[in-house]
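seq:
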Amino acid sequence: MKLTQPKHAAPHMADQMRDVEPVICYSPDTLPQPDFAKMKALRVAAKQTGRITVPPRDAACIEVPAGGFFRITSVEGPQVGDLNLWNAKDLGERFYSGKTRALHGTHLSTGDRMWSSFPAMRPMATIVDDTLDWYGFDHFGGSVHDVIGTRCDPYTGRLLSGGDYHHCCHSNLTRALAAHSNLPLHEAEAHVHDVLNVFMCTGFTRDTGQYFMKASPVRPGDYLEFFAEIDLLVGLSACPGGDCSSEHSSDTAACYPLEISVWSPDATAQSDHQMPQMNPYDRSHGVS
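struct:
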């Protein structure tokens, strides 16, 4: 957090320094682009093959085959969700929110891809539809579906409040992954990772650069839909903050369920899908 009253005087060239034009660190222009025509054709032919309801202040997992689609839907009231993705065949390959943020920006929408962790570093899922794409960025600098925040967790909660709260998103996802994968809690927890905050409206304050949240614009019927680039295990927590208009990590906010539906094309169309290859870097790290 930057000091509002600096201790040191600005140099005489301060204004010139501040006026230097920024440079995009990682331009996504050279990345392989999603084949939306093919995805659209697959989606038209897809049939619903699975569905789960994520209860308020809890989480659930569901598998999605490569070449299929999954949709996260608000079904009863304004509710945000914390999303984890894993390779269904290897939990060690998981969503890398920091690199996704570096490539696509702080908030995701249609056309953005969710990238996996090193050493695979490949697209795991592509966003194909977003009913909140109209929101854009508001005058506070807020937008929806961020890859900024981590997830509410009991460790930070203990530091800030001195108490324990077990239905934060980190704990919810830990329980859900343990139950789905038959892992002990401590092993499942090691696989829970930074999230895509689905439907959450967030940004950074202009003066101190602090992460903020505000009431989500999501309403029943809104959804965010993804194309599964690889075989996925999807974990979603219905955040205890509800619409995150006031607080999280407590039982105070009104919370509602979320729904995940899975849509799959026929077996022939699905088998034609070519999963992205693992990252080609040789992992030598300069050592011959």
